[in-house]
Structures
1.
Amino acid sequence: MPDTNRPRKGSLGFGPRTRAVSETPRFNSWPDDDGQPGLQGFAGYKAGMTHVALINDEPDSPREGMEETVPVTVVETPPMRAVALRAYESTPYGQRPLTEVWGDEFHGELDRALDVPDEHDADAAEAEIRDALDAGRIGDVRAITHTVPGAVPGVPKKKPDVMETRIGGGSLEERVDFGLELVAEGGEHDMNDVFRAGQYADVAGVTKGKGTQGPVKRWGVQKRKGKHARQGWRRRIGNLGPWNPSRVRSTVPQQGQTGYHQRTELNKRLLDIGSGDEPTVDGGFVNYGEVDGPYTLVKGSVPGPDQRVVRFRPAVRPNDQPRLDPEIRYVSNQSNQGGRGRAAATQED
């Protein structure tokens, strides 16, 4: 006899499956850092995928020291800018923004994303933060940062993606000093200022939108079979639930929005952080083009389609401490458009 009990279709841990509020992902938690003060996040634009050959450096692995091929995602990571320091005050109702210290110089395209303050008393805002810091009312400090998509030829937009990035490490006084100095110097920072090749990172992005879909594609339920499909409905569920409670519960698989959800993947290893056109495939990445600037190679896949912004943060719960600076011996430049790769063409010549 078949087993009448089976797991439900589709995880409820990702509900409600609604469209993301913003295409720029958000982080609700940040890791603890006991090192020097610094930013705990960065962002880039997904270009495409290729594969690399590297030396397995996993301790106690049967393949340790051997060469293996792994898929990687190429993320173009041009320098970002920090334009303001925001201090949060601890209250009985949680942390609330206290004040902000804005810089003097802004990127020319920043006014596309937000209203840049024309008149701002940075000295008064800094004094307010110092007083709250002495009184022990400061709970956290974060920087308002933004990307510069105009510097990336493969991204067809100029409007920056503005986000909030936590400043971690050291004491609160040291973090405030770091943030004020960063904003005063223009706020430009690179991927190398936050991460190092070999580290684990959490990657957040908004997945590819698929519009309205039925329960079969949205939740993975089975299509009706045999005589049950003769009523004319093959891709519907059998019923909407019991008589009591006399309502349709949210756990019932129904049609609705599919895709364009924010998803955060944990413990993605950053295999390489470099600059140049080395990871560009022959003919350019499909729907993106060539990568000719700072880039990051992430092991495996990351959420979202090409050209979409993805965010990185240090891993909040890493499985282990990986070895830094893995040895990459070969980056595949084979075309993603069905053509031959650059390496194969070079060998024949």
2.
Amino acid sequence: MFRGEKINITENRAVLHVALRAPRGESIVVDGENVVAHVHAVLDKMAAFSNPVRSGVRKGHTGKRIRNVVNIGIGGSDLGPVMAYEALKHYSDRAMTFRFVSNIDGTDFAEAVRDLDPAETLFIVSSKTFTTLETMTNAHTARAWSLKGLGEDEKSVAKHFVAVSTNAAEVSKFGIDTANMFGFWDWVGGRYSMDSAIGLSTMLAIGPDHFRAMLDGLHQMDEHFRKTPFEQNLPVLMGLLTVWYNNFFGAQTVAVLPYEQYLKRFPAYLQQLIMESNGKHVTLDGTEVAYSTSPVYWGEPGTNGQHSFYQLIHQGTRLIPCDFIAFSRSLNPLGRHHDMLLANVFAQAEALAFGKTREEVKTEGTPEWLVPHRVFEGNRPSNLLLAERLTPETLGKLVALYEHCVFTQGVIWNVNPFDQWGVELGKVLAQRIIPELESKTAPTLGHDRSTNNLIRRYRKSKEAG
């Protein structure tokens, strides 16, 4: 991977998210080119764009300052930027508003822009091909909304839209100045791209210096993974533990439980990173696997989850390994809050490990009939990741930790963590169904009976108004 070999064999691509945070001057060659030089050229271009927007020098079509940024993307073009913005909100420019639109449900866009002034709003459209159905549907809706608020002046599009894409022709056709098009490469998978130009909204929020600090944290973990002996290698150890509980103890899920409110979107980010990577049923050579691959990842920030699903983790019939994430120092110290927060995460890890025996319950004077209900089996596994403070650098380390944990798992399971053919079939079928829903006359339907009936029911509802 670090040499730029094309280890994504089903797409014949290198896998080089590690190049996105390689220091200036390093060399990683793909097809005869040093890609690190290209990465830093894009980072410099991002900084040259972000600084005047953040300072108010770069204004909108009417001369008003840009105060709102709306990122339009889906999958890795949304989950990474949303997670990073929420995680690093403490470091963001609070004079600016950031919104994220991904769902093709019109409600997502309508609510994102409801209270925004088009004259003060910049849209970032993130789509490598500039043809992604959900993203481009939302982008064209945003274009119409922006034009309506700016007197239908087509020239305004260039002032209020930028693109993260590689398709210059479509970007230009949309009305975006290709000077404001930020590129990325085939060797960056969407779920591994938050530190590429896909992170433009992140850089606008926290500034180029903090963005580069995040890149440095990512690189530090890359080097740890690359150089550290396996018995002390954090991503390797976490990957091995996942395989151990998944394949030898039948654990079907892993709970990620950040005791840090800023990381509230981190479990959702990991869901794509991990399950889209290793949710595979065949090995690298196409052979059906005879064992479980990726478990289901899920979670919520603590202490909220303690009053929700922890009951199942402690006393349910399923083994659920947990990753607790906590920080020694709070970014918002308020009285006793942080002591109480940390006491809870330490207590949960202890309770999962050691539980509470029948004898311990009985010595508390519990009635015999109630004893079984208050017994905790314990011997339930958890990792507790304790860092000093949530900084851009620390977030980078945390993201790279899980990226390389995923790679470790994939190597052991002998699957390709870097393709995602499973997302294709539904998208192809949707493209077939769209004209059948929009047709003015009743279409001839060739789906299964259930799908045909659903289409007819929907069309009947539309016709009824």
3.
Amino acid sequence: MHYKARYDQRHPKISESGEAALINSYEPSKCPYCGSESFIRKGLDPNGIRRYRCSSCGQTFRPTTGTIFDSRKIPISEWMEYCLNIFRYVSLNADLWNNRNALSTSKYWLEKLFLTLQGSQNDILLDDTVWLDETYYAILMRDREKKEDGNFVRGPSRNQICIGVATDKKHTVCLLEGYGKPSQRSSYKCFKDHIRPGSLLIHDKQTTHKKLVEKLSLTSKAYASKDLKGLTDSENPLDPVNRIQVLLKMFLNAHNGFNRDDLQGYLDLYAFVINPPAEQLEKVEKIIKMVFENPKSLRYRDQFGLNQASESTVCK
């Protein structure tokens, strides 16, 4: 009974959560079924959430229809708290313990977060002075390739995923560049739309960024890696990007064991965490706005391949 009371306290009924005002503050721009912009208000549902009726297709919908909040079983406030935990580098295991959720539920919410943030770095344009460097993150042990002698391949290889990180100290971009050592082509493809032409690029002396520098007419200031060894952070000219990479590793390690196919989702999430606004509650407000203004849906059974009978037994 104690645990049930604790669960009920943290998971109030939607009708008791007071979220109707939040949902009703977002007016749909079009019908989620046919895309028509002609619709009228059609009263409230039992939870006090406004309904609309499309004048073109006749379908009835709510502001949540077609979004990740469609068909939810818990209040949006629970998802907001989940976001705050993730922004604080809380692992999925710690979050499910705090919120009394199943691991599958936490993973489902994380996939919703990835879906919401998909493409969120597309419009980030760095300018003035830009620091750029690559770092690596290992694939899972079970997937690593071995040499003929049975030992793992060392250094940049298929066992390492290359992540490009660039920052102008105001905004940051984190993108996948593929497996092993990056090429001029991969670096250019990743960052050509994220660095303003004519900017100053501070980077290492690898040839990886040569095409990027030439095509964007960047002023290049490169440093040899061997010359940077032993320098303090304040003396290291690449410290702005190095510091971000250290924090990125901490963030990824908080979710150690995740499917590497989801790595770009984690990078989008990390970029969202470290980019403005700085206040975490403002970040939550921003992401809620993204949910309603750019609707995307993900059904639980589509994510985990569950049938309707088993889906009804899972708390979401």
